[in-house]
Design goal:
Elements (H helix, E strand, L loop, with lengths): L1 H15 L9 H23 L3 H5 L2 E9 L2 E3 L1 H14 E17 L2 E14 L4 E15 L2 E11 L8
Parallel strand pairs: 1-6
Antiparallel strand pairs: 1-2, 3-4, 4-5, 5-6
C-alpha cells in the first residue's frame, strides 16, 4: 500500500518538473512568420519614407548591431540613420528575398537580401545590395531586433 501511495504522489510531481512544451504547430509557425514579415516590410516602408523614428522603433535599446564588420550601439545606429535620412532626397528598397525561422512564439531569426537605391541631395543615385541576418524578439507586443548584422552582398547573389 505504501508503494502505491508513493507512485501516486510522485507522478504529479514528475509531470510538473517536465520542461514546458514549446512546440509550435505549422499553423502557429505560419501566423508568427507572416506577422513578422509584415513588421519587417513596415520597417522597410518607414525607411523609404525616410522616417527615422519609424525605423528605430524596431530596434531594442540594447541591440547588438554589426554593419560592414563594425560593432555599433543603438545610439550609434540611430545617429547614422538620422544623418543619412537628413541628407538624401529619397530611398527605395526592393526586398529580393526573405527567410524567416520561427524560434519560439516570441522569437524569430531572419535573413533578407535587399536592393537599395539612394538618391543623394545632388540627385546622384547609389545602388547597393545588402544582406541582413537578425534575431528579433517580441517585447511589449511588438517585434524588436536584438542582434543584427549587415553586409554588402557580392554581385551577383548566388544560391549554394
Amino acid at each position: 500500500m505504501h508503494r502505491l501511495t508513493f507512485v501516486a504522489l510522485a507522478l504529479p510531481f514528475m509531470a510538473a518538473c517536465q520542461p514546458a512544451t514549446t512546440e509550435l504547430t505549422e499553423e502557429q509557425w505560419t501566423v508568427i512568420a507572416d506577422e513578422f514579415r509584415q513588421h519587417r516590410m513596415d520597417m522597410y516602408a518607414a525607411a523609404e519614407r525616410l522616417d527615422a523614428d519609424g525605423v528605430m522603433r524596431s530596434f531594442a535599446a540594447d541591440a547588438v548591431l554589426i554593419g560592414q564588420g563594425v560593432r555599433m550601439t543603438y545610439e550609434d545606429y540611430d545617429a547614422i540613420v538620422r544623418n543619412l535620412f537628413g541628407s538624401v532626397q529619397s530611398q527605395s528598397i526592393d526586398v529580393l528575398d526573405m527567410w524567416v525561422d520561427v524560434l519560439a512564439a516570441d522569437a524569430v531569426a531572419n535573413t533578407d537580401v535587399i536592393a537599395v537605391a539612394v538618391t543623394d541631395s545632388a540627385g546622384n543615385v547609389v545602388e547597393q545590395t545588402y544582406l541582413h541576418t537578425e534575431v528579433w524578439v517580441k517585447r511589449d507586443d511588438r517585434w524588436v531586433m536584438i542582434h543584427g548584422q549587415q553586409a554588402l552582398a557580392a554581385e551577383p547573389m548566388q544560391d549554394h
